[in-house]
Amino acid sequence: MKRISVIMLTAIALCLGPGVASAGKGPPALKKKVLREIGLTDAQIKKIDDLTYKADREKLDVKHDVQKARLDLRHLMDSDKPSKSAVFSQVEKISALELKLKKNRVGLMLDVRALLKPEQWEKLQMFQAQRRFKRREHRERRMRRRKGGDGPGDGPHPGGPGAP
Fold it and tell me: How far apart are CA 129 and CA 137, in angstroms?
């Protein structure tokens, strides 16, 4: 049951605003269209946009801190005689920052999930299942093409196996 909940929360992340999935792929109008199709109101969509904006701002700050902490770790490791305690301390700092990033993402997913009504949740689950199926089919077609293919239009690709 926990696994299904995690999967569904991930589904929300993949369908909703740019910061929720952190991919930011696809035009915002398309995302809003999908949200409206599953029955979200304009007020819910606005709240999701606001939550996403807030989470994205925090995420940017933390990502910047992670980059600086990694740079500091590299500097420690490049010294002639790195201090084991200093290096381990820096590794712990990086781990804590990465945990903060994960909590940011999961917190946003939970906040968004709390906004949905049960019927909206069910529609989102169905939408996500269809989306996963289409992605799997697309991935499988790509793999067949790379291996020589068995479908129409498949055959040797420039630079691929069987190419002159």
Answer: 12
Provide the residue count of the chain.
164
pLDDT tens, residue by residue, 53-104: 999 999 999 999 999 999 999 999 999 999 999 999 999 999 999 999 999 9
Give the pair of three-digit tokens for residue 150: 């068995």
CA 44 to chain CA centroid, Å, is 21
Token pair 């005689």 is found at 81
State the residue for tokens 């201090």: 83
Which pTM value belongs to this model? 0.63
DSSP string, 108-159: HHHHHHHH--HHHHHHHHHHHHHHHHHHHHHHHHHHHHHTT-SSTT-S--TT
130 Cβ contact partners less than 8 Å away, ≥ 6 residues apart: none
Q: What is the spatial distance between Cα 143 and Cα 149, in angstroms, rounded to a whole number?
A: 8
The one-letter amino acid at 147: K
Q: Where are the domains of the chain?
A: 2-141
CA dihedral 56, 62, 63, 65 (to 10 degrees): 150
